[in-house]
Amino acid sequence: MKDLLCDEFQNTVAELLIRHHSILDVLSKSQEATARVNRAVTKAVTGCGCIQIDAKKKLIPPEATLADLKSYLESHLQGSLCPSCQEVVEMELGKLLFYITALCNLLDLNLYDVFLKEHKKISTLRIFNLT
Questions:
Q1: Percentages (nearest 5) of helix, strand, coil residues in the chain
Q2: Cα separation of 95 and 70, whole Å?
Q3: Measured in whole angstroms, how far is the alpha carbon of residue 5 from the centre of its chain?
Q4: What pLDDT score was predicted for residue 131?
Q5: Helix (H) and strand (E) counts for the chain?
Q6: What pLDDT score does 1 carry?
Q7: What mean pLDDT is predicted for residues 83-93?
Q8: What per-residue confidence (pLDDT) applies to 115?
Q9: Among 3-7, 100-104, 121-125, 126-130, the least confident range
Q10: Could you tell me the pTM of the whole model?
């Protein structure tokens, strides 16, 4: 079912991508979409204040193992997106997803296959993926 939804989304993007059909247009639009996601999250912090960022260097004990790292590291994020900011971030992420899918279309890649390969890689490598 999920692969059908992904394929349907990819087909819809292919139908709608008329004006920005050049690979260069899609690359620049995906870059712009990424910047807009960053801006939306930044505005949630600086404009709305529904989320806060409290970042400082984390001290990791020298005896900590690779498996221990997750307990020492954090997102630096406090709070949660208010409904208004959530709507904006979701909208911008949707645009980014659109251009990622458009890039897959232009390069003759299946978005679901890309998703599955990445999932398999991170599932196999687990903690050694270090992302």
A1: 70, 5, 25
A2: 31
A3: 18
A4: 55
A5: 5, 2
A6: 65
A7: 98
A8: 92
A9: 126-130
A10: 0.85
Which pair of structure tokens corresponds to residue 11? 């087909």
Q: Tell me how far apart the alpha carbons of residues 112 and 104 are, in angstroms, rounded to a whole number.
A: 10
Cβ atoms within 10 Å of 72's Cβ, excluding its own: 11
| Distance from the Cα of residue 71 to its chain's centroid | 23
Beta strands, E only, 4-102:
51-53, 77-79
Domain boundaries, the chain: 2-129
Q: How many CB atoms lie within 10 A of CB 118?
A: 10
CA distance linking residue 32 with residue 21, whole number of Å? 16
At 86, list the tokens: 């959530």
Give the Cα separation of 64 and 22 in Å (integer).
49
**Confidence (pLDDT) at 11:** 93
> Tokens 């890689």 identify what position?
121
Structure tokens that stand for 30 in this block: 């995906």
CATH number of 2-129: 1.10.287
**Sequence-separated (6 or more) residues with CB below 8 Å from residue 111:** 6, 7, 9, 10, 100, 101, 104
Q: What angle do CA 97, 103, 104 make, to 5 degrees?
A: 90
Q: Can you name the residues that pair with 79 across neighbouring β-strands? A: 51
Beta-bridge partner residues of 51: 79
